[in-house]
């Protein structure tokens, strides 16, 4: 083999290895330019901070104790799933919140976060949390508050949004703080409620599609019956009825991904099954590097103690090692779990975790 051939082959191998190493962490060969994020507290970056009379806020310690900027409104000790997903995609360190008055101009080019803790797919879900931004209103905020300015920056064609990721994570509150809280007489059966909830979300995803969304990630509902909030009122045990409700919705959501793919030309959707990922951790925490899967890391005051049984006490004590806890408060995962979910979303090859493909593949379609 002559030297020129050897050099050429060496260059090809080097180029392949270099692109593999780079793409293995940041899959933006074709380029995900940014993310637009909608949903509830699991993906909220701090939109509720400025909402008066909102009872769903996390802008105080110990929230954010491991986040570089401190308390930011994220419902965890550090980064949430969106932060880690952005890291994998090579996006700026933090997607700005819509509620921040400075979120305009070039700051919106890499995306905006509209999510609001306590909100749901249904407009009446957030009532118990006071002033929150419903999913319908979040989509309106994108349509009326961001999109006109964004089109002036990147172009007015709908194809201009082809390489943006639209992430929707909502639904858990519709069960925990709506159906199971207000439907005590079971006036609406669980299958009927779930069908209506799925149909409502379908309409919301179609609305985003009509505005130009082509790459979407929809996040499942977590194991509702195994949160510390639920276990605290059930002698430390999970409530399977709540888990079954989540599973029913998630099954509908996975089917919806296939249905919408056919109904929305040029669209590509990914179903992120965070239920399965978290349930695997809860079932065998040690195998995933965790120790405590039933108790919150932070001090959570009960109703009788002046709290709400969900959120951390302001300035309250925390566990010494957040990395081995599954839950930070009585409902929301720790940064360690969020990182694991994001890594699965980005690169898992298991369709039980991401369906029909992962975000890395979605980014390069």
Automatic annotation (TrEMBL):
GO biological process, one term: lipid catabolic process
Pfam families, per database record: Lipase_GDSL
InterPro entries on file: GDSL, GDSL_esterase/lipase, SGNH_hydro_sf, SGNH_plant_lipase-like
Signal peptide limits: 1-23
Claim: Glycoprotein is one of the keywords in the record: no
Key words, A-Z: Hydrolase, Lipid degradation, Lipid metabolism, Secreted, Signal
Main location: secreted
Record keyword Secreted present: yes
Subcellular location: Secreted
Source superkingdom: Eukaryota
Cellular compartments per GO CC: extracellular region
Any one GO molecular-function label of the UniProt entry: hydrolase activity, acting on ester bonds
Similarity comment: Belongs to the 'GDSL' lipolytic enzyme family.
Entry protein name: GDSL esterase/lipase At4g16230-like
Gene symbol of the encoding locus: LOC111439041
């Amino acid at each position: 083999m002559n030297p020129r051939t050897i050099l050429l082959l060496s260059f090809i191998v080097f180029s392949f290895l270099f692109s593999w190493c780079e793409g293995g962490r940041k899959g933006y060969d074709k380029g995900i330019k940014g993310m637009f994020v909608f949903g509830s507290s699991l993906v909220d970056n701090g939109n509720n901070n400025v909402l008066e009379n909102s009872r769903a806020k996390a802008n105080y310690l110990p929230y954010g104790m491991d986040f570089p900027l401190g308390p930011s409104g994220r419902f965890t000790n550090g980064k949430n799933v969106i932060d880690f997903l952005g890291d994998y995609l090579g996006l700026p360190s933090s997607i700005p919140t819509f509620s921040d008055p400075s979120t305009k101009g070039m700051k919106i080019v890499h995306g905006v976060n509209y999510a609001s803790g306590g909100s749901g797919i249904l407009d009446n879900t957030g009532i118990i949390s006071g002033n929150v931004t419903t999913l319908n209103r979040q989509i309106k905020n994108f349509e009326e508050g961001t999109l006109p300015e964004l089109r002036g920056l990147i172009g007015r064609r709908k194809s201009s949004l082809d390489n943006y990721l639209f992430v929707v994570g909502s639904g858990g509150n519709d069960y925990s703080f709506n159906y199971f809280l207000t439907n005590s007489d079971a006036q609406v059966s669980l299958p009927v409620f779930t069908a209506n909830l799925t149909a409502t979300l379908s309409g919301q995803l179609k609305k985003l599609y009509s505005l130009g969304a082509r790459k979407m990630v929809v996040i499942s509902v977590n194991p509702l019956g195994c949160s510390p909030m639920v276990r605290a009122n059930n002698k430390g045990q999970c409530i399977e009825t709540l888990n079954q409700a989540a599973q029913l919705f998630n099954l509908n959501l996975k089917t919806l991904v296939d249905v919408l793919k056919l109904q929305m030309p040029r669209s590509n959707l990914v179903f992120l099954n965070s239920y399965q990922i978290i349930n695997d951790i809860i079932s065998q925490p040690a195998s995933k590097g965790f120790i405590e899967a039933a108790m919150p890391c932070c001090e959570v005051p009960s109703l009788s103690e002046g709290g709400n049984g969900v959120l951390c006490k302001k300035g309250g004590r925390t566990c010494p090692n957040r990395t081995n806890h599954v839950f930070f408060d009585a409902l929301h995962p720790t940064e360690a779990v969020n990182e694991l979910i994001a890594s699965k979303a980005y690169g898992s090859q298991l369709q039980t975790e991401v369906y029909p493909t992962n975000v890395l593949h979605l980014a390069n379609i």
